[in-house]
Amino acid sequence: MAQIKHNNFRDTVDKVITEAKAEGIVHLRAEDRQHTGRWLTVQGKACYHFGNTGYLGLEQNNRIKLGAMQALLRYGTQFPLSKTYISHPLYEELEEKLQLLFKNPVIITKNSTLGHLAVIPTVVRDEDAVILDHQVHWSVQNAAQLLKVRGIPVQLVRHNNLEMLETLIQKLSSKVSKIWYMADGVYSMFGDYAPVKALLALTKKYPQLYLYFDDVHGMSWRGANGMGYVLSQLGTLPEHVLVFGTLSKSFGASGSVLICSNKKFYNQIKNFGGPLTFSAQLEPSALGAAIASANIHLSDEIYRLQEALNNRIAYFNQQLVMAHLPLIARNSSPVFYIGTGLPATGYFLVKRLMEAGIYVNLGLFPAVPAKNTGLRITLSNHNAFDDIDQLVEQLISNYDIALMATDNSRSRVGKAFRMDFVDGKPFATTNQDLQFKEFKSIAETDATHWNTTLGKFNMLTYDGLAYLEQSFTQNQEPEHNWRFWYIQIVDDANCPVLMTFLTESLWKNDMLAPASVSKLLEHQRKRNPYLQTSRVLSLGCLFTEGNHLYLNEEHQQVTLALKQLLEYIENLAQTRKVTMTVLRDFDLNYNWSKAILDQGYIPIDMPDSCVLLDLHHKIEADYTQYLSKRSQKHFKKDIEPYLSLVKSNVVQRVSSANIKVYYELYLQVQRKNYGLNTFTYPLEAFEVLRSHPNWECILLKAVEDERLLGVMFCYKNYSGVYVPSLIGMDYKYLEVFKTYRQLLYQTILRARKLNMKQIDFGMSANFEKRKLGAAVLPKQAFVQTDDHFFLEELEMMRTGHSG
């Protein structure tokens, strides 16, 4: 099995947040000596605060502050004892008031994250299954991860997709006892709602279905006595529905609360709910504040506060309609999302607003897909109507400026969100006599331009791409039929500024996932061959590796050419309705990384690439002298002793009968290579290469009886690059003859004989290639998706089997 470096989702998130931090968008510090909720001082600038999730403004209420202070003075800073043994004196009073408020039994937790960790592993049994809305809060998803250790199936469904949910319920119903669906009541990015009533109807159709809601963003500002959005929709809380609310955010204190009418669940959680047993209980000041807030909730004052917020929400909605700003979800929640599409536009706009005295949050990956970046605006009762007018005025003044400054447009934003936003103003054209040329076949391109630019790399010559077209069109299986696009951007003197090609093809979603994930999926694919596969638009193709983008770095219009290409790819991806766009394979410190990231891509780690450089300078007969001392020892131990057992010869024209034999050896390797999991290439591709002038086969045989041990399929790029693209081996003899190492060494000998400058060994088996002198080059790709549902699904599988 190939040993290979895989991308880690957390590394991708780290890179994105690091970029946002460098832009001055996140990890900022409030600089105020005192907070009122209306203002926030950031980087020396006093700003109207439109990032507050204390929607009713209760965190600044004097009675709640006084409640916290009095409890602090009476009881101290904390009550350092597990609540399982004894509760703080104020707990009983708070629980009584919350039970009146929610009209159901409650359990108070330190915060919602610890609350989910306490409740979910307790109520979900080993014979149950869990389905997560893929936009449910991280704290719910994190708690659900613990279930997989117990073998409990945990799966994702697309956001608010009841059809997908019902299909999964039907699939699981005969295999498990209870099926838990977990969702947010009000989602924190777009401010949209869970379809609570429709979900309740689904539980009547499927009695196995239990519902679990995180309603922390729906609390206080909605429902009788501020019981929250979910409970306001349910009316009476059924025993098969659990609801989490918050005592922070709009409640104005801290902590969280589980509302549960099921006595069995209630007692189980109360008796042993993980963090409830082993974590500290709420501080006395938090209990005092929560009691004071509960008193307000149980009075008519809560309705005046709700009405004040609703008036602001209605006013802002009205202003946005008149301003024709691209609001993504129009509803009655205090959370608003104005799309910018590109991260570059979002960065620019947030900074312009801060300069103008307006603070808003930026919705970024992984909270939203990178190309769905936007302004996340929250309203609270701290915001005066004049403040809202200022916000709208600055949005109108700066939104189109941000679009123009980042080569964006409203229609482009609309495409990113699959909505229709019409450009309100004409945009300046940036065409400066660059000619953008698109071709559907390499035969239509300028061969000289191609071979002197991109054709110098790997097997990307004019002839090499003609081979790929011939091999991957008009085949029977969908994974063997690719679409090709060739892009040439030239200036008015016909000088190439940018050259590249793209393919659309079917990928396995787990191509770069750990081998354990691919093994699991391959087992499932025996029943469903196209499970977890997607149509992908890619720079280059699945057959090639290395540099797929030529940029004339010296040309003064190279930046413009790159922007034109990225916008073309974005439009093509939308036209073709692909799941994902992948730009690969780039060095980690690629000069144009920021320009690509600003266009809504996220970086992911690719497997390292192995290249043997400066081969034409290594002219001495004894190749081992160019190896390190350690590698020389490896050679003498693992390669040299077997040289007398094998012999090699090069075949440039292979018979049809023999190519079928070689193909079977290739399949042996492919079926074991879970580390880089792709579809097998069709026999037709091998039939084409057997008589192609640029292809040759290095055969490895046993000296004793001429047994065929393995074959290396190599492409000769006459710029001096030798490309061993594919390998086939008979695994019965792999260890006896050390076939893989022998083929690598014979490839080097052949490339030297041809006076090649370098060998592109490609991905996987880095250790073996490095021992023969290859350099290991870290690579990255840039990925764009409409949503990151399947990325999250694979990440969930990576951290444990999902059943």
From TrEMBL:
SUPFAM superfamilies: Acyl-CoA N-acyltransferases (Nat) (SSF55729), PLP-dependent transferases (SSF53383)
Keyword list, A-Z: Pyridoxal phosphate, Transferase
Domain of life: Bacteria
Residues covered by the Aminotransferase class I/classII large domain: 70-393
Pfam annotation, one family: Aminotran_1_2
Matches recorded under PANTHER family: CLASS II AMINOTRANSFERASE/8-AMINO-7-OXONONANOATE SYNTHASE
MF-aspect GO terms: pyridoxal phosphate binding; transferase activity
Protein name as catalogued: 7-keto-8-aminopelargonate synthetase
Pathway field: Lipid metabolism
PROSITE patterns: AA_TRANSFER_CLASS_2 (PS00599)
Cofactor: pyridoxal 5'-phosphate
Database matches in Gene3D superfamilies: 3.40.630.30, Aspartate Aminotransferase, domain 1, Type I PLP-dependent aspartate aminotransferase-like (Major domain)
